[in-house]
Amino acid sequence: MNQIIKRLSEYKLLPVVTVKDPQTAVKLSHVLVEQGLPAIEITFRTDAAPESIRLVRKAFPGITIGAGTVLDIDQVKIAQNAGANFVVAPGFNPLVIDFCLENQITMIPGVDSPTLIEAALSKGLELVKFYPAQASGGIDYLKAIAGPYENIGFMPTGGINPDNLKDYLDYEKVMVCGASWLAPSSVLEANDFNTIEKRIALALSLR
């Protein structure tokens, strides 16, 4: 198994964040490391993403960093240069996936159908992002479309929260869950790290 994917499957949770200030990403990463969850996905939804990845990598060399919402090859290159361990996409772009495979970059594309699962299998991918998880039909829909397929794992993301987290993690084909509720933008911008610490502790207790 790919070592990055193996690490994510051990953590079970991948905090997904969007930040406007790179220093906020560093502060959050400190909390995550202290809480025993040394992993973060920083989305490319703001211009602060590359610098955030760079500063987090510098401050915490051992943390597992993903670049999220990666839509094209240029963003893959920027993420790699900044220090990301892997990239995540909301959809399934064959050009981006092929570039990552050719350059041995761990890539987790988004899927929401059997057709896309089979496309991922045809490229030898081990892990795909089930997105948007709840809006697509939740755990029941995931079980229905994932059932026929072996040798591939899923990372549900979108609408995951403490009320349904365990339902997803109890399914053997779910390797890790994207956890955007742990540190949403509104809480980060308020510097409310006390709330974030409590949410992380609760999520870890549900793994």
Structure in words:
With 207 residues, this protein is of the alpha/beta class. The protein has one domain (3-202): Aldolase class I (TIM Barrel, Alpha-Beta Barrel). The chain contains 11 helices and 9 strands. It has helices spanning 3-11, 22-34, 49-59, 73-82, 94-102, 114-122, 133-136, 138-146, 165-169, 185-189, 193-205; strands at 13-17, 39-43, 64-68, 86-88, 106-108, 110-111, 127-130, 153-156, 177-179. Strands 5-4-3-2-1-9 form a 6-stranded parallel β-sheet, sandwiched between helices. Strand 4 (86-88), helix 5 and strand 5 form a beta-alpha-beta unit. Helix 2 crosses helix 3 (49-59).
Question: What is the compact description of this entry?
Answer:
By secondary structure, this protein is an alpha/beta fold.
Task: Give me some keywords for this one.
16% strand, three-stranded parallel beta sheet, globular, single chain, 207 residues, TIM Barrel, alpha/beta, six-stranded parallel beta sheet
What is the fold's blueprint, element by element?
Elements: H1 3-11, E1 13-17, H2 22-34, E2 39-43, H3 49-59, E3 64-68, H4 73-82, E4 86-88, H5 94-102, E5 106-108, E6 110-111, H6 114-122, E7 127-130, H7 133-136, H8 138-146, E8 153-156, H9 165-169, E9 177-179, H10 185-189, H11 193-205
Parallel strand pairs: 1-2, 1-9, 2-3, 3-4, 4-5, 6-7, 7-8
CATH architecture type = Alpha-Beta Barrel
Q: What's the number of domains?
A: 1
- Indicate the proportion of strand residues: 15-25%
Mean pLDDT, nearest integer? 98
